[in-house]
Amino acid sequence: MTTIGVLLGSVEGIWSELGSLGVPCIESVICFTSEKKKLMNTLTRTRAVLLDAEKQEEKTHTTEDWLEKLKDILYDAEDLVDELTDAHRNKADKVLSFISTPRFYAVMYFKVNTIRRKLNDVVENYTKFLVVHEDAGSKYDYESKDREKPQSYVLPTAVFGRDEDKEKIKKLLENNEHNVSIIPIVGMGGLGKTTLAKLVYNDAKDFDLKMWVRVSYDFDVATLVKKVIKVASNAECPNLPLDLLQHVLRKNLGRKKFLLVLDDVWNTNRESWIVLENLLMGGERGSVILVTTRDWDAARIMGITGSPYVLRGLSGEDCCSLFKQLVFKPGQVEETPGLLSIGDEILAKCGGNPLAITTVAGLLRGKYTESEWSKVNNQLWELAREDDDILPTLRIGYAHLPPIVQRCFSYCSIFPKGFVFEKATLIQLWMAQSFIQPSSNMLLEDIGDEYFRILWKKSFFQDEKMDAYGNVIICKMDVLTHDLAQTVAGFECSIVNDDMVNISERLIHASVSISRLEEITTLLVRARKLRTLLMTGGCSCTRKQDFDKFTSSFKSLRALIFGGFSCCGSSYVLNSIGELKHLRYLDLSESNIETLPNSVCDLRNLQTLKLNYCKSLTELPRDIKKLINLRHLLNHGCDKLEGMPSGFCQLTAIQTLPIFVLGSGGLSELEGLNNLRGELRIKDLENARHTTSESRKTYLKEKKYLQTLTLCWETNEGNGDEDAALFEGLQPHSNLMGLHIRGYGDMKFPSWMFNMGNSLPHLVEVTLEYCPSCVCFPLFADLRFLKVFKFSSLNSLEYIDSYISDSPSSSSSFKEIIPSGAREWFPSLQEVGLSSLPKLKKWSREVVVVNDGGKAKTEAIAEQRKQLLSLNSLSKLTIGRCPELTSMPLHPHVVELALFDISEALIQSMMEAATISPTAAATTSLLPSFSVLSKLKSLSISFCDDLVSLPKGWLENLPSIEHLEIQDCSELESISRETHHLTAPDMLRSLEGKMIDLSEEEDDLQGFRSLCSLQFHHLPKLTSLPKGLQQATKLKEVSIIFCHSLVTLLESMENIRSLQYLTIVDCKKIASLPRGLQHLTALERLKISNCPELNFSDEDNDIPGLRSLHLLQLKGLPKLVSLPKVLQHATALKYLVIEECSGLMTLPDWLGNLTSLRQLEISFCDELKSLPKGMPCFTALQELTIQGCPYLSETCQKETGKDWTKIAHIPEIELDGQWL
């Protein structure tokens, strides 16, 4: 499927590039210039025909065929423009004299003429068939009347997994303190935003008036006001101008508390929204406008007080429930266990999307054979395309993307499903393909960022991760959206497998998982116009002739991703890479190369060169300065890189350079690189210690786009004064947001750090590590935007924020000067990390307060610093290996607290502080304006050997605690005998006890109804699990490891039906598992290892259970004589490992019921005589491993063993280390 908008972008790009090419005004090029103008005229005509074709409501086969032919010609034209641009660039560099000769322009004339004639022919032929239809509107606008008004009743059986979402939104409605609040629900198409809004709408009782209005794409304010009036008055609205409609609207809404649902809003025009919003502000206090939208921009322009409510996909359990409800009749699930495994795979492709599940369920309803389900599974997207619901829902957002962004989206289909996109990488690849249309006042990267944001905001990208500065860095594309990308990309993009034949000659962008380069060349030989090749499984090539054949076969390549390239370390193999003249993106990350061939420098169009984690790489090519278009050089993890080559400073276009290694050229190679942005790490600064000229210049102050700067001295040995002089010249631009210092050898800091509030006012993060002479750090408490600071491995540091007052070079008094009336210190600080600070005593020592008259007086920190050092924003605090530290300022907003290898005095002071009342806190130096740690969700205490006990009642003041971990505190006598007295025990979701003495008195812990994760590791005195866990109905994970005294787990696990992961390892005395194992219908992984007394009970074995079990590992169970019969119902089991079970003599015949099994491993079971008769039933089994089983080693011999016929159908069989 070729998108006209994409071709329009290509035509306009070629026309623009041709127009920008200048040529000499000499006789020899007149013909070429004339032909170039003719081609530009033909391109203009082509654009006009494309615009006419775009108006067609339906694309005929003739149109589709014409678009494909046109696309092929445009690809040739883009390559020609590349060649011309490169030639003129070389001329400017005086590299080639050939391009000034008549012969060169004669060759170019012939190429331009050929493309022009082809283009003219294809346009002429198509105009004979083109029929221009009047625009009948978007065929994707499926607005239906039944969405205009919500049904008065939503069937409970049709809605799964939205109870929590519904309650959260209802709370937002109830807690509304404004006259009219706006609450947007944001999520991708098909997630059920409208359904959720209906649930809330139906349940909302405390409103005088409830209204529902479907908005869709036509955001006309007058039309919407009429709709609101109509549903508010239950009468037709007269056709009046907006100013009169306003009076009618306020008459209907005035003095009423209303709930208005605006469903499916796409508008991103803030002015239009403000007009509508102002018209709707006439309701009583507590009125709410609830909005559903899939567009983040639409949500953000609304005048909301909080954040939009983000709707996510359904959980696996809810997906399964919805699926079964729609596909099976009551009771039928139990009769069709073989289908559930296929159903799991189908559900995984639906990505938690309820509409997708509903659509697929419709395809499966009435089909109850595995072959029918497998067909649907294998052809899911093709079958779904025929449906009238799901594809329009997903494609509707695509249809409203700008044409050039459509092209960027379809390109993403070459990445495997589940691939984690790096935003920067994706933009660089779009640039390599010329997808990004240049602008005179914007960088290509910034334009690409806008394209990315469009796709992200419209929910095509999800699961985003942000950096410390709020920028999206990685994201994913869900399965259905990926399938949509593949559909719209057509033959142009493909994920190629080694079993594919007849690769299309129209293939342009491909990813392959084949590792041998010669096989890739053979497989893709027909794709001569290939522009992207992504090798997802690494690549190896040891013969130069194979690489030469590859480069000669794919000369149009613009992006080549060779991740993990192996060529025995020799760059000789890669010599011909310079032949790929169009290459703009080259990724050799994680390769074993030691040097790059100098021929890389012939890639004059190269924009991105990725060398991340090339751990053997020692040097860059000597002529790298020739890569004048290089914008991104990524060299993370190139630890052996010895320095930057001479002339590196000439790469003035470079924007990304994570690591700059100081070499023979010194810091002068940084001069001129003023377009650097993002992060910069300067290594081996000790190499500049003896160069006096280095300390006299400022190399970084002009680099205004840098966000993060890391300065590294790899050795502390040397002259501290030289380090200080060098450091003085490393002042960054005031825009810097992150400053990291490592290995600095002197105790004095540069003058520009003494007033960072002015010199670096935008700092967000500061770290200091491995600076042995650092006794104190310059005052940085007035950095208004500082969110994170971390100090580690500073052997001399005594105080965090005290510094000398005498002079920048003095070190005598350790006092600081603070003007009276100073602002709050660290107003934005969110995270503090202090580790390996052996001399740290306190946050501060003392303060000198200077009044307006200049008279100074010294007072205690408790009184003077109470308001300044309030740390109101602090949410995460980590302290470790600070033996002298006995107190630390806290604040009740702390959410995460981790303490490791610190004194009992510090822990006691913190925990005792948590019990101080607000009145008492006002007189306590530790906790200014402090009451309790009311926001704390995660507490970890570990490796505190002298910790004997925790204060009485300390847990009572942790009402929000969700995760509690106490590990390796060998002297701790008790977690707390009062644990069951938690003020809000329902909040605790994760409890970990590791290598502590959990006393028997604590076996009656109660009330953990919200506990999701339980980990007990290395608890030598634990004899049984807390009885209260039987009521932990939300428990999902239990891990019991090295509890040698544990005899029993729980009396019954029947109530813990949410359990998904159960691990029991090295529990020497445990003899049996609890009753009710068969009721664990959500259990996915069960691992039991090294429990010598354990045997299984077969009670209730006739009750079907363990339906969701995917992995079972049984290891080191000598008393196990047979597999538990409850496993015969585990029809979803895919991985079964049986190891070191010396008492096991036979495997049951019912094992053949496990038809989903893919991998079976049997190891060191000395008495196991034979395999079961049901082995041929394992039709899905891909791999069988048998190791150290003497009887089986004989019976499973290929062709001759008596069990061979049972296993001969299995693709991969390993017997005692040998593949059969």
Question: What does this 3D model show about the protein?
Answer:
- With 1220 residues, the chain is α/β, with parallel strands linked by helices.
- The chain folds into seven domains: 124 residues; 166 residues, P-loop containing nucleotide triphosphate hydrolases (Rossmann fold, 3-Layer(aba) Sandwich), CATH 3.40.50.300; 72 residues, no CATH class; 105 residues, Winged helix-like DNA-binding domain superfamily/Winged helix DNA-binding domain (Arc Repressor Mutant, subunit A, Orthogonal Bundle), CATH 1.10.10; 144 residues, Alpha-Beta Horseshoe (Leucine-rich repeat, LRR (right-handed beta-alpha superhelix)), CATH 3.80.10; 90 residues, no CATH class; 256 residues, Leucine-rich repeat, LRR (right-handed beta-alpha superhelix).
- It has 30 helices and 42 strands.
- The strands form six sheets. The chain has a 22-stranded mixed beta sheet, with no helix packed on it.
- The chain is globular.
- GO terms for molecular function: ADP binding; ATP binding.
- One of its GO terms (biological process) is response to other organism.
- Keywords: ATP-binding, Leucine-rich repeat, Nucleotide-binding, Plant defense, Repeat.
